[in-house]
Amino acid sequence: MQNREKQSRLFQAMKDMFALPDLRRKLLFTFLILVIFRFLVHIPLPGVDGEALSKLFEQNELLGMLNLFSGGAMKNFSVAALGVYPYITTSIIMQLLVPVVPALQRIAQEGEAGKRRINKITHLVMVPMAAIAGYGQLTLLRSQGVIEYFDPLSTLVVVASLTTGTVLLVWLGELITERGIGNGISIIIFGGIVASLPDMIGRGFVAKEDPLGLIVFIILGLVTLVAVVAFIEAHRRIPVQYARSSFRGGRMYRQSGSTYIPLRVNTAGMIPLIFALALMQFPSLIASYFMNTGGQNPNIWNSIYNIFNSGASLPMGLVYWGLYFLLVLGFTFFYTMVIFEQMDLPKTLQQQGGFIPGVRPGKTTAEYLNHVIKHLTFGGALFLGAIAVMPFFAREITGVTVLTISSTAILIAVGVALDTMKQLESQLTMRRYDGFLK
To answer: In a 10 Å sphere around its CB, with 0-12 CB exposed, 13-18 middle and 19+ buried, how is residue 274 labelled?
Structure first.
Protein backbone atom coordinates (compact mmCIF):
# COMPACT_ATOMS: atom_id res chain seq x y z
CA MET A 1 0.00 0.00 0.00
CA GLN A 2 2.81 2.38 0.93
CA ASN A 3 4.67 1.55 -2.31
CA ARG A 4 1.56 2.43 -4.33
CA GLU A 5 1.24 5.74 -2.49
CA LYS A 6 4.93 6.55 -3.16
CA GLN A 7 4.55 5.68 -6.85
CA SER A 8 1.41 7.80 -7.16
CA ARG A 9 3.20 10.72 -5.45
CA LEU A 10 6.16 10.32 -7.81
CA PHE A 11 3.98 10.30 -10.94
CA GLN A 12 1.96 13.21 -9.60
CA ALA A 13 5.16 15.19 -9.00
CA MET A 14 6.33 14.46 -12.56
CA LYS A 15 2.98 15.64 -13.91
CA ASP A 16 3.16 18.78 -11.77
CA MET A 17 6.63 19.61 -13.09
CA PHE A 18 5.31 19.94 -16.62
CA ALA A 19 1.90 21.30 -15.63
CA LEU A 20 3.39 24.44 -14.01
CA PRO A 21 4.35 26.91 -16.79
CA ASP A 22 7.33 28.45 -14.96
CA LEU A 23 8.84 25.10 -13.97
CA ARG A 24 8.17 23.62 -17.41
CA ARG A 25 9.98 26.54 -19.01
CA LYS A 26 13.00 26.02 -16.74
CA LEU A 27 13.15 22.30 -17.52
CA LEU A 28 12.88 22.85 -21.27
CA PHE A 29 15.54 25.58 -21.13
CA THR A 30 17.92 23.22 -19.28
CA PHE A 31 17.26 20.49 -21.84
CA LEU A 32 17.92 22.93 -24.72
CA ILE A 33 21.29 23.95 -23.23
CA LEU A 34 22.26 20.28 -22.88
CA VAL A 35 21.37 19.71 -26.56
CA ILE A 36 23.66 22.63 -27.52
CA PHE A 37 26.41 21.11 -25.34
CA ARG A 38 26.06 17.74 -27.12
CA PHE A 39 26.21 19.55 -30.48
CA LEU A 40 29.53 21.20 -29.50
CA VAL A 41 30.96 17.81 -28.48
CA HIS A 42 30.68 16.60 -32.09
CA ILE A 43 32.45 19.57 -33.74
CA PRO A 44 36.00 18.16 -34.21
CA LEU A 45 39.25 20.01 -34.69
CA PRO A 46 41.38 19.03 -37.73
CA GLY A 47 44.51 16.86 -38.00
CA VAL A 48 43.68 14.01 -35.58
CA ASP A 49 44.30 10.26 -36.01
CA GLY A 50 41.07 8.81 -34.61
CA GLU A 51 42.34 5.23 -34.01
CA ALA A 52 45.52 6.37 -32.25
CA LEU A 53 43.49 8.79 -30.12
CA SER A 54 41.06 6.03 -29.04
CA LYS A 55 43.97 3.74 -28.10
CA LEU A 56 45.64 6.49 -26.07
CA PHE A 57 42.46 7.12 -24.05
CA GLU A 58 42.10 3.39 -23.34
CA GLN A 59 45.66 3.22 -21.96
CA ASN A 60 45.58 6.39 -19.83
CA GLU A 61 43.04 6.28 -16.97
CA LEU A 62 43.21 10.02 -16.23
CA LEU A 63 42.49 10.92 -19.86
CA GLY A 64 39.77 8.26 -19.93
CA MET A 65 38.14 9.77 -16.84
CA LEU A 66 38.28 13.30 -18.28
CA ASN A 67 36.84 11.99 -21.55
CA LEU A 68 33.99 10.37 -19.60
CA PHE A 69 33.21 13.67 -17.89
CA SER A 70 33.35 15.59 -21.18
CA GLY A 71 30.86 13.20 -22.79
CA GLY A 72 33.37 12.00 -25.38
CA ALA A 73 34.51 15.50 -26.39
CA MET A 74 38.19 14.74 -25.63
CA LYS A 75 38.07 11.48 -27.58
CA ASN A 76 36.62 13.37 -30.56
CA PHE A 77 39.10 16.22 -29.94
CA SER A 78 36.25 18.67 -30.41
CA VAL A 79 36.10 22.37 -29.57
CA ALA A 80 34.65 21.33 -26.18
CA ALA A 81 37.51 18.89 -25.47
CA LEU A 82 38.61 20.71 -22.30
CA GLY A 83 35.09 20.75 -20.90
CA VAL A 84 34.59 22.97 -17.84
CA TYR A 85 37.65 21.60 -16.03
CA PRO A 86 39.84 24.72 -16.38
CA TYR A 87 37.05 26.58 -14.54
CA ILE A 88 36.81 23.88 -11.85
CA THR A 89 40.60 23.85 -11.43
CA THR A 90 40.66 27.63 -11.11
CA SER A 91 37.80 27.53 -8.56
CA ILE A 92 39.68 24.99 -6.44
CA ILE A 93 42.88 27.06 -6.59
CA MET A 94 40.95 30.19 -5.56
CA GLN A 95 39.38 28.30 -2.64
CA LEU A 96 42.83 27.29 -1.43
CA LEU A 97 44.30 30.80 -1.92
CA VAL A 98 41.56 32.77 -0.16
CA PRO A 99 42.64 31.85 3.42
CA VAL A 100 46.33 32.28 2.51
CA VAL A 101 46.43 35.56 0.54
CA PRO A 102 45.44 38.57 2.75
CA ALA A 103 44.05 40.61 -0.18
CA LEU A 104 41.71 37.79 -1.22
CA GLN A 105 40.77 37.22 2.42
CA ARG A 106 39.67 40.85 2.75
CA ILE A 107 37.60 40.59 -0.44
CA ALA A 108 35.92 37.39 0.77
CA GLN A 109 34.86 39.16 3.99
CA GLU A 110 32.87 41.77 2.05
CA GLY A 111 29.78 39.57 1.93
CA GLU A 112 27.82 39.15 -1.30
CA ALA A 113 29.83 41.84 -3.10
CA GLY A 114 33.04 40.04 -2.14
CA LYS A 115 31.72 36.76 -3.52
CA ARG A 116 30.93 38.44 -6.83
CA ARG A 117 34.46 39.89 -7.01
CA ILE A 118 36.01 36.49 -6.24
CA ASN A 119 33.79 34.94 -8.92
CA LYS A 120 34.89 37.59 -11.44
CA ILE A 121 38.57 36.96 -10.64
CA THR A 122 37.96 33.21 -11.08
CA HIS A 123 36.48 33.78 -14.53
CA LEU A 124 39.40 35.98 -15.58
CA VAL A 125 42.03 33.50 -14.38
CA MET A 126 40.13 30.67 -16.07
CA VAL A 127 40.98 31.99 -19.57
CA PRO A 128 44.81 31.64 -19.34
CA MET A 129 44.33 28.36 -17.44
CA ALA A 130 42.24 27.02 -20.33
CA ALA A 131 44.86 28.20 -22.85
CA ILE A 132 47.65 26.45 -20.91
CA ALA A 133 45.56 23.28 -20.60
CA GLY A 134 44.74 23.37 -24.31
CA TYR A 135 48.39 23.77 -25.31
CA GLY A 136 49.38 20.99 -22.88
CA GLN A 137 46.79 18.64 -24.35
CA LEU A 138 47.93 19.49 -27.87
CA THR A 139 51.57 18.80 -26.92
CA LEU A 140 50.67 15.48 -25.26
CA LEU A 141 48.69 14.24 -28.27
CA ARG A 142 51.45 15.36 -30.64
CA SER A 143 54.11 13.47 -28.62
CA GLN A 144 52.00 10.29 -28.85
CA GLY A 145 51.71 10.59 -32.63
CA VAL A 146 47.98 11.27 -32.47
CA ILE A 147 48.14 14.74 -34.02
CA GLU A 148 50.18 15.86 -36.98
CA TYR A 149 52.63 18.75 -36.65
CA PHE A 150 51.04 22.20 -36.62
CA ASP A 151 52.79 25.41 -37.59
CA PRO A 152 52.69 28.22 -34.94
CA LEU A 153 49.64 29.90 -36.48
CA SER A 154 47.65 26.64 -36.62
CA THR A 155 48.67 25.86 -33.03
CA LEU A 156 47.42 29.29 -31.95
CA VAL A 157 44.09 28.73 -33.72
CA VAL A 158 43.59 25.29 -32.10
CA VAL A 159 44.46 26.58 -28.60
CA ALA A 160 42.16 29.57 -29.10
CA SER A 161 39.35 27.23 -30.23
CA LEU A 162 39.76 25.00 -27.17
CA THR A 163 39.82 28.03 -24.86
CA THR A 164 36.72 29.48 -26.52
CA GLY A 165 34.95 26.13 -26.14
CA THR A 166 35.62 26.15 -22.39
CA VAL A 167 34.43 29.75 -21.98
CA LEU A 168 31.28 28.94 -23.98
CA LEU A 169 30.51 25.88 -21.82
CA VAL A 170 30.96 27.87 -18.61
CA TRP A 171 28.62 30.56 -19.97
CA LEU A 172 26.03 27.89 -20.89
CA GLY A 173 26.35 26.45 -17.39
CA GLU A 174 25.72 29.83 -15.81
CA LEU A 175 22.66 30.29 -18.03
CA ILE A 176 21.28 27.03 -16.60
CA THR A 177 21.96 28.30 -13.06
CA GLU A 178 20.14 31.58 -13.76
CA ARG A 179 17.23 30.41 -15.91
CA GLY A 180 17.08 26.63 -15.56
CA ILE A 181 17.14 24.00 -12.81
CA GLY A 182 20.16 23.04 -10.73
CA ASN A 183 23.80 24.12 -10.73
CA GLY A 184 24.69 24.74 -14.37
CA ILE A 185 28.35 23.64 -14.28
CA SER A 186 27.39 20.43 -12.48
CA ILE A 187 24.56 19.78 -14.95
CA ILE A 188 27.03 20.11 -17.87
CA ILE A 189 29.36 17.52 -16.27
CA PHE A 190 26.36 15.29 -15.44
CA GLY A 191 25.21 15.47 -19.07
CA GLY A 192 28.66 14.39 -20.26
CA ILE A 193 28.77 11.41 -17.88
CA VAL A 194 25.27 10.19 -18.77
CA ALA A 195 25.93 10.60 -22.52
CA SER A 196 29.00 8.33 -22.26
CA LEU A 197 27.18 5.46 -20.51
CA PRO A 198 25.44 3.92 -23.58
CA ASP A 199 28.77 3.65 -25.44
CA MET A 200 30.46 2.00 -22.44
CA ILE A 201 27.60 -0.48 -21.92
CA GLY A 202 27.53 -1.23 -25.65
CA ARG A 203 31.24 -2.09 -25.62
CA GLY A 204 30.56 -4.51 -22.74
CA PHE A 205 27.99 -6.44 -24.77
CA VAL A 206 30.05 -6.38 -27.97
CA ALA A 207 33.09 -7.80 -26.15
CA LYS A 208 30.99 -10.84 -25.10
CA GLU A 209 32.90 -11.44 -21.89
CA ASP A 210 31.93 -13.98 -19.22
CA PRO A 211 28.14 -13.57 -18.64
CA LEU A 212 28.45 -14.47 -14.95
CA GLY A 213 31.24 -11.91 -14.56
CA LEU A 214 29.05 -9.26 -16.22
CA ILE A 215 26.16 -10.05 -13.83
CA VAL A 216 28.44 -9.81 -10.78
CA PHE A 217 29.87 -6.57 -12.20
CA ILE A 218 26.40 -5.04 -12.57
CA ILE A 219 25.50 -6.10 -9.00
CA LEU A 220 28.70 -4.49 -7.68
CA GLY A 221 27.89 -1.34 -9.62
CA LEU A 222 24.39 -1.15 -8.12
CA VAL A 223 25.71 -1.78 -4.59
CA THR A 224 28.28 0.98 -5.10
CA LEU A 225 25.55 3.32 -6.33
CA VAL A 226 23.37 2.70 -3.25
CA ALA A 227 26.37 3.13 -0.94
CA VAL A 228 27.32 6.42 -2.62
CA VAL A 229 23.76 7.78 -2.22
CA ALA A 230 23.82 6.96 1.51
CA PHE A 231 27.35 8.38 1.80
CA ILE A 232 26.48 11.70 0.15
CA GLU A 233 23.36 12.20 2.27
CA ALA A 234 25.02 11.17 5.58
CA HIS A 235 25.56 13.99 8.07
CA ARG A 236 25.66 14.66 11.80
CA ARG A 237 23.32 17.23 13.31
CA ILE A 238 24.92 19.55 15.85
CA PRO A 239 22.14 21.15 17.98
CA VAL A 240 22.24 24.95 18.24
CA GLN A 241 20.15 27.25 20.43
CA TYR A 242 19.63 30.97 19.91
CA ALA A 243 18.82 33.48 22.63
CA ARG A 244 18.16 37.06 21.55
CA SER A 245 17.01 40.13 23.44
CA SER A 246 14.88 42.87 21.94
CA PHE A 247 13.53 46.14 23.39
CA ARG A 248 9.96 47.23 22.72
CA GLY A 249 8.20 50.02 24.60
CA GLY A 250 11.05 50.35 27.08
CA ARG A 251 10.90 46.69 28.02
CA MET A 252 13.34 43.89 27.24
CA TYR A 253 11.96 40.72 25.66
CA ARG A 254 13.96 37.48 25.39
CA GLN A 255 13.41 35.22 22.41
CA SER A 256 14.81 31.71 22.04
CA GLY A 257 14.88 29.09 19.33
CA SER A 258 16.70 25.93 18.33
CA THR A 259 18.06 24.49 15.11
CA TYR A 260 21.01 22.34 14.07
CA ILE A 261 24.19 22.48 11.97
CA PRO A 262 24.38 19.58 9.46
CA LEU A 263 28.05 18.51 9.27
CA ARG A 264 28.40 16.23 6.27
CA VAL A 265 30.50 13.08 6.34
CA ASN A 266 31.72 13.91 2.82
CA THR A 267 32.47 17.62 2.96
CA ALA A 268 35.26 17.39 0.35
CA GLY A 269 33.09 15.82 -2.38
CA MET A 270 34.98 14.28 -5.32
CA ILE A 271 37.92 16.76 -5.17
CA PRO A 272 40.28 14.35 -3.27
CA LEU A 273 39.69 11.69 -5.95
CA ILE A 274 40.65 14.10 -8.75
CA PHE A 275 43.75 15.34 -6.88
CA ALA A 276 44.90 11.79 -6.06
CA LEU A 277 44.27 10.45 -9.56
CA ALA A 278 46.16 13.34 -11.21
CA LEU A 279 49.12 12.76 -8.88
CA MET A 280 49.12 8.99 -9.50
CA GLN A 281 49.02 9.43 -13.28
CA PHE A 282 51.87 11.96 -13.37
CA PRO A 283 54.80 9.45 -12.94
CA SER A 284 53.48 7.13 -15.69
CA LEU A 285 52.93 10.11 -17.99
CA ILE A 286 56.56 11.24 -17.53
CA ALA A 287 57.86 7.66 -17.86
CA SER A 288 56.01 7.19 -21.17
CA TYR A 289 58.31 9.80 -22.76
CA PHE A 290 61.57 8.04 -21.76
CA MET A 291 60.84 4.29 -21.57
CA ASN A 292 62.02 1.86 -24.25
CA THR A 293 59.34 0.47 -26.55
CA GLY A 294 59.11 -2.42 -28.97
CA GLY A 295 61.89 -5.04 -28.80
CA GLN A 296 64.31 -2.84 -26.83
CA ASN A 297 65.52 -3.83 -23.38
CA PRO A 298 63.38 -2.25 -20.64
CA ASN A 299 64.96 0.53 -18.60
CA ILE A 300 64.12 2.14 -15.23
CA TRP A 301 61.36 4.18 -16.86
CA ASN A 302 59.62 0.98 -17.99
CA SER A 303 59.58 -0.17 -14.34
CA ILE A 304 58.12 3.18 -13.19
CA TYR A 305 55.48 2.99 -15.90
CA ASN A 306 54.49 -0.54 -14.85
CA ILE A 307 54.31 0.41 -11.15
CA PHE A 308 52.03 3.38 -11.83
CA ASN A 309 49.88 1.57 -14.39
CA SER A 310 46.26 1.40 -13.24
CA GLY A 311 45.63 -1.59 -15.51
CA ALA A 312 48.17 -3.79 -13.69
CA SER A 313 46.75 -6.92 -12.08
CA LEU A 314 47.73 -8.58 -8.79
CA PRO A 315 50.22 -8.31 -7.13
CA MET A 316 51.64 -5.23 -8.93
CA GLY A 317 48.23 -3.55 -8.93
CA LEU A 318 48.25 -3.41 -5.13
CA VAL A 319 51.11 -0.88 -5.24
CA TYR A 320 49.23 1.57 -7.49
CA TRP A 321 45.82 1.20 -5.85
CA GLY A 322 47.29 1.13 -2.33
CA LEU A 323 49.06 4.46 -2.93
CA TYR A 324 45.88 5.81 -4.53
CA PHE A 325 43.89 4.84 -1.41
CA LEU A 326 46.39 6.59 0.90
CA LEU A 327 46.47 9.74 -1.23
CA VAL A 328 42.65 9.93 -1.17
CA LEU A 329 42.75 9.74 2.63
CA GLY A 330 45.35 12.52 2.86
CA PHE A 331 43.65 14.86 0.37
CA THR A 332 40.25 14.31 2.02
CA PHE A 333 41.58 15.49 5.39
CA PHE A 334 43.49 18.40 3.84
CA TYR A 335 40.64 19.74 1.68
CA THR A 336 38.01 19.27 4.41
CA MET A 337 40.10 21.21 6.93
CA VAL A 338 40.62 24.05 4.41
CA ILE A 339 36.87 24.28 3.68
CA PHE A 340 35.96 24.05 7.38
CA GLU A 341 38.39 26.85 8.31
CA GLN A 342 36.85 29.11 5.65
CA MET A 343 33.34 28.49 7.04
CA ASP A 344 34.44 29.80 10.49
CA LEU A 345 31.35 28.39 12.22
CA PRO A 346 32.27 29.41 15.82
CA LYS A 347 32.53 33.09 14.85
CA THR A 348 29.28 32.94 12.88
CA LEU A 349 27.46 31.37 15.82
CA GLN A 350 28.80 34.00 18.22
CA GLN A 351 27.78 36.85 15.92
CA GLN A 352 24.23 35.47 15.58
CA GLY A 353 23.79 34.82 19.29
CA GLY A 354 23.84 31.05 18.96
CA PHE A 355 25.52 28.41 21.09
CA ILE A 356 25.84 24.64 21.29
CA PRO A 357 24.17 23.29 24.47
CA GLY A 358 26.78 22.24 27.04
CA VAL A 359 29.65 23.91 25.14
CA ARG A 360 31.03 27.36 25.96
CA PRO A 361 31.06 29.90 23.12
CA GLY A 362 34.37 30.92 21.55
CA LYS A 363 37.49 28.76 21.73
CA THR A 364 35.72 25.79 23.37
CA THR A 365 33.12 25.71 20.58
CA ALA A 366 35.89 25.81 17.96
CA GLU A 367 37.69 22.89 19.64
CA TYR A 368 34.45 20.90 19.90
CA LEU A 369 33.55 21.42 16.22
CA ASN A 370 37.12 20.58 15.13
CA HIS A 371 36.95 17.37 17.15
CA VAL A 372 33.62 16.39 15.56
CA ILE A 373 34.67 17.22 11.98
CA LYS A 374 37.93 15.23 12.35
CA HIS A 375 36.02 12.14 13.47
CA LEU A 376 33.47 12.55 10.68
CA THR A 377 36.20 13.12 8.10
CA PHE A 378 38.07 9.99 9.22
CA GLY A 379 35.03 7.83 8.50
CA GLY A 380 34.29 9.73 5.29
CA ALA A 381 37.89 9.43 4.09
CA LEU A 382 37.90 5.66 4.64
CA PHE A 383 34.66 5.31 2.68
CA LEU A 384 35.89 7.62 -0.09
CA GLY A 385 39.11 5.60 -0.32
CA ALA A 386 37.10 2.38 -0.54
CA ILE A 387 34.97 3.85 -3.34
CA ALA A 388 38.18 4.98 -5.11
CA VAL A 389 39.68 1.45 -5.23
CA MET A 390 36.36 -0.22 -6.10
CA PRO A 391 37.20 -0.39 -9.87
CA PHE A 392 40.29 -2.49 -9.10
CA PHE A 393 38.42 -5.00 -6.93
CA ALA A 394 35.50 -5.13 -9.37
CA ARG A 395 37.89 -5.96 -12.20
CA GLU A 396 39.78 -8.61 -10.20
CA ILE A 397 36.61 -10.28 -8.85
CA THR A 398 34.61 -10.35 -12.08
CA GLY A 399 37.38 -10.53 -14.69
CA VAL A 400 35.53 -7.87 -16.73
CA THR A 401 38.08 -5.51 -18.31
CA VAL A 402 35.99 -3.69 -20.93
CA LEU A 403 33.62 -2.02 -18.45
CA THR A 404 34.93 0.15 -15.61
CA ILE A 405 33.20 1.61 -12.56
CA SER A 406 34.38 5.21 -12.30
CA SER A 407 33.96 6.09 -8.63
CA THR A 408 34.43 9.80 -9.36
CA ALA A 409 31.77 9.72 -12.09
CA ILE A 410 29.32 7.96 -9.75
CA LEU A 411 29.94 10.52 -6.98
CA ILE A 412 29.38 13.44 -9.35
CA ALA A 413 26.33 11.93 -11.07
CA VAL A 414 24.61 10.96 -7.81
CA GLY A 415 25.43 14.31 -6.16
CA VAL A 416 24.09 16.33 -9.09
CA ALA A 417 20.96 14.16 -9.39
CA LEU A 418 20.15 14.50 -5.67
CA ASP A 419 20.78 18.26 -5.68
CA THR A 420 18.58 18.77 -8.76
CA MET A 421 15.80 16.63 -7.27
CA LYS A 422 15.87 18.69 -4.08
CA GLN A 423 15.60 21.91 -6.07
CA LEU A 424 12.66 20.52 -8.04
CA GLU A 425 10.98 19.40 -4.83
CA SER A 426 11.42 22.83 -3.26
CA GLN A 427 9.99 24.50 -6.37
CA LEU A 428 6.96 22.18 -6.32
CA THR A 429 6.43 22.63 -2.58
CA MET A 430 6.58 26.42 -2.90
CA ARG A 431 4.01 26.47 -5.67
CA ARG A 432 1.68 24.08 -3.88
CA TYR A 433 1.72 26.33 -0.82
CA ASP A 434 0.91 29.34 -3.04
CA GLY A 435 -2.05 27.47 -4.52
CA PHE A 436 -3.32 26.42 -1.08
CA LEU A 437 -3.17 29.97 0.29
CA LYS A 438 -5.08 31.32 -2.66
So the answer is: buried
